Amino acid sequence: MIHNILKDKPTKLFLGFTAFFVANALIAECIGNKIFSLEKLFGFTPVNFSLFGQSGLAFNLTCGVLLWPLEFVMTDIVNEYYGPKAVKRISYTAVVLISYAFIMFYGSISIPPADFWIGSKSANGIDNMQTAFSGIFGQGMWIILGSITAFLVSQVVDVTVFHRIKKATGEKKVWLRATGSTVVSQLVDSYIVLTIAFKFGSNWSWPLVFAVGTMNYLYKFTVAIILTPVIYFVEGRIEKYLGHETARKMKRAAMGQEDDGFVNIPTAG
């Protein structure tokens, strides 16, 4: 039976999407501890914004934001061909596995280190490997809670906005439903994660939350616009892989429209 499943192109495609979606989300969470300067990345002097009474603001972002936009691109593509139940399935899968990964991280931090290992990287400027390991993998629980909550809520918002736009426009204006849903969901994501992780977890003031959230959202909004052509490119490759007729039937099924004779769409509900 497994051979028949793996021969089905829509099924293989869905498995590939799920694997990449989960791996990308987990990697984004793992590298999110590092803060980088977006301006310095492009060779510019950091900007100096003032928002909501907060001065000295610049585009200092977590490395995780480099990968999170891909999650929303994937969400829109899966939504287009497999529907909202499939998006929810891969989102829940990602959250469960991210939670599992962080439990394992915390467990490994508490395991007593070997004496020789602690100073094994002293030649590279790392005096205590246990401290370094804990600093990298020991993200605060408020940050983890904020990130996972923001991810789930923004995914639901993305799916909802996407389908409302698609119902209004039909098969036309892919850019509108893809970019529009991402722009709205990223707005929600930006403020939820900061509110939980830093307002509740570190007692930030509300003006600081709104100021930093706005800076983060400006970046995410820009990236969402830039990545719009990627949606068209990926959908073109999918159409070529599946065939135009199969892709058309999958899109109809994703919208809850029956198409007689088509039974090969993997159900994710």
Give me a quick take on this structure.
The chain has 269 residues and is mainly alpha-helical. It has helices at residues 2-7, 9-31, 38-41, 68-82, 84-110, 115-118, 129-137, 141-169, 174-202, 206-226, 228-242, 244-254; strands spanning 35-37, 49-51, 54-57, 60-62.
What share of the residues does DSSP label as strand, in percent? under 5%
Backbone shape: globular
Fraction in helix: over 70%
Low-confidence stretches: 260-269
The number of helical elements comes to 12
SS class: mainly alpha
What's the average pLDDT?
86
Radius of gyration: 21 Å
Give the topology string: H per helix, E per strand. Answer: HHEHEEEHHHHHHHHH
- What gap, in angstroms, lies between the N and C termini? 20 Å
Major sheet strand order: 1-4
Please summarize the sheet with the most strands: 2 strands, antiparallel
Number of strands: 4
Total domain count:
1
Question: Which terms summarize this structure?
Answer:
269 residues, mainly alpha, two-stranded antiparallel sheet, disordered C terminus
Task: Provide structural commentary.
This protein has one domain. Helix 5 runs antiparallel to helix 7. About 70% of the residues lie in helices and about 5% in strands. A two-stranded antiparallel sheet has the order 1-4. Strands 2-3 form a two-stranded antiparallel sheet. The protein is mainly α and about 270 residues long. A hairpin with a 2-residue loop joins strand 2 (about 50) and strand 3 (about 55). The model is unreliable at about 260-269 (pLDDT under 50).
